[in-house]
Amino acid sequence: MTTPDIALRLLDGRQAAQRAAELLAVHDEVHAELPYRWGPDQEDRYAGRLPVLCRQPGFLLAEARHGDYLVGYALGLPLRPSTDWWRDLTSRLPAEVTTEYQGRSFALTGLLVRAPWRRQRIGESLHDLIMAGHPAERGLAAVLTTAGPAQCAFGRWGWRKIARKQESCPGSPVFDVFVRTLDDHDYPDPRLARAGLMVSDVMAKFAADRDPWMLESGYFGEPDPSHDSEPGFDPIDERVTRCPVKRA
């Protein structure tokens, strides 16, 4: 439960763009913390990317406010069939997992809560609101491997790690790729269901065949309870890391 004086609201891209200054202020504040420690160049690139995200079809923003004060938000958008979201994986995944089609995936591209407002389940409420606001079959997110509270939160919320991604330029951060369905955490994807397979079955077999570390490290196990905290994090930055932004 969130505190009673927190108001949650779901907005579209036009409404989100009108709040860009507030969104960037929260983003800058959260990313000044560990494990991010973003510099001015990274923040400038994100500031340039945010309006582009807001213009994408299906973009959503869930915001949490205490009065007029923005304490946190989540944002995301549907992936197009031509998306490059699956680029930069450290290990190949089956085409059944990475193939995108209209209405298949909603990418959760950010979830941030200001530090004084954490541990009140505000992040969870924002997550639930935005994930319930779209009709996609599954959600996707990429969480920084060093963001312990974020990793734990995604595990509690029913997401599964299935891979890792890292851009090729030197110093690029490493992200864990998470997947979750709208209403069933161990879901049969429509295309896999015809073969009688669950996504977790496919990924577990793939991991055992190709990368036993994924099983040994708990990729298909329970989250570490020692990280019992709410995240203030940006679970997926796509091109907003240390590499120059690649424009379509």
Structural account:
- With 248 residues, the protein is α+β, with helices and mostly antiparallel strands.
- The chain has 9 helices and 7 strands, in the order βαααββαβαβαββααα.
- The chain has one domain: 3-Layer(aba) Sandwich (Aminopeptidase).
- Strands 1-2-3-4-5-7-6 form a 7-stranded mixed β-sheet, with helices on both faces.
What structural class should be given to the helix and strand makeup?
alpha+beta
What is the overall shape? globular
Total domain units: 1
Q: Biggest β-sheet, characterized?
A: 7 strands, mixed
Looking at the structure, the CATH topology is: Aminopeptidase
Mean pLDDT: 76
The CATH architecture classification is 3-Layer(aba) Sandwich
CATH superfamily: Gcn5-related N-acetyltransferase (GNAT)
Q: CATH top level?
A: Alpha Beta
Strand line-up in the sheet with most strands: 1-2-3-4-5-7-6
